[in-house]
Amino acid sequence: MPNSYIFFMIDIEQTFTALGGQFVTAPDVLTEKLKAVRAIVFDWDGVFNDGVKTEAGSSSFSEVDSMGTNLLRFGFWLHHGGQLPAVAIITGVINGLADALVRREHFHACYSQAKNKVEVLAHFLDQHKLQPSEVAFFFDDALDLSVAQVAGVRIMVRRNANPLFTDYVIRNGYADYVTGNESGHFAVREGCELMLGLLGQFDSVMGERLRYRPVYDQYYQQRQAIEPSYWLVGPDGPEPKTV
After folding, report:
1. What pLDDT digit, counting tens, does each position of 114-126 carry?
2. Which of 39, 91, 96, 229 is 20 to 30 A from 119, comparing alpha carbons?
3. Residue 3: band (very low, low, confident or very high) from pLDDT cuts 50, 70, 90
4. Distance between CA atoms of 205 and 111, rounded to whole angstroms?
């Protein structure tokens, strides 16, 4: 293994552990798992926000995290030679702002009221002819563990209020990395930058984004052509939802 690669991995590890991030899986092993990723799945509450609801039952997202998702998608697009990763939000409730982010950013799908998330994941992967090992999953709580058990890469968003749950996840091997930032404090952006860094794509992503044309523009046009699908999960599984 070249010394330059070893130093690169040490630098990435030190950068993110300095934030308080915890590598459950060694960075070099995690990098190998990331190379196979062709789909990104996000939980919503506690991942894009701190889980606090408004009176109307909604919860928000940050533009900082939104940009992170876009940069990560671009990075995987570069990594896979111009093939977009499939992207979905799978949430246990109905949230209008989750639908709005999916619509604006042209994610592939949003699943609402998903209680048995691993069955919903199977529906999404069947739509895109993918396997669970090809999924990078962002999550934060107990409802997400059925997906965390099977996904190829698992990013757990830290919340210091649940030390026993965090310990349980780590002991059972349900996470590869636990963010240094807590939910509601741009943990999605942290996870996105971590993956870009491990893939060696961060500088390429930033350089092409700066130039915009022709490479980023090609990615962006493909992204904008995606027509998201919206699903309401009931007793009989996901059913199309009008948004």
Report:
1. 999 999 999 999 9
2. 96
3. low
4. 29
Distance in angstroms between the alpha carbons of the first and the last residue of the chain: 51
Collapsing DSSP states into helix, strand and coil, what is residue 51?
Answer: coil
* Rounded Cα distance, 83 and 33, in Å: 18
Q: How far is Cα 62 from Cα 64, in angstroms, rounded to an integer? A: 5
Residue 183 burial by Cβ neighbours in a 10 Å radius (0-12, 13-18, 19+): buried
Specify whether the CB–CB gap between 109 and 13 falls below 8 A: no
Residue 92 CA to residue 143 CA, distance in Å, equals 8
- Residues 127-151 have a mean pLDDT of 98
Q: Is the per-residue pLDDT at 189 higher than 90?
A: yes
Our CA angle for 179, 183, 185, nearest 5°, is 90
The encoded tokens of residue 120 equal: 């919903």
Determine the residue type at 189.
Answer: R
CA distances from 156 to 137, 152, 192 (A): 8, 13, 12
Note the helical H segments in 61-201.
63-79, 96-105, 117-128, 145-148, 163-171, 187-198
Cα 88–Cα 92–Cα 191 angle in degrees, nearest 5: 50
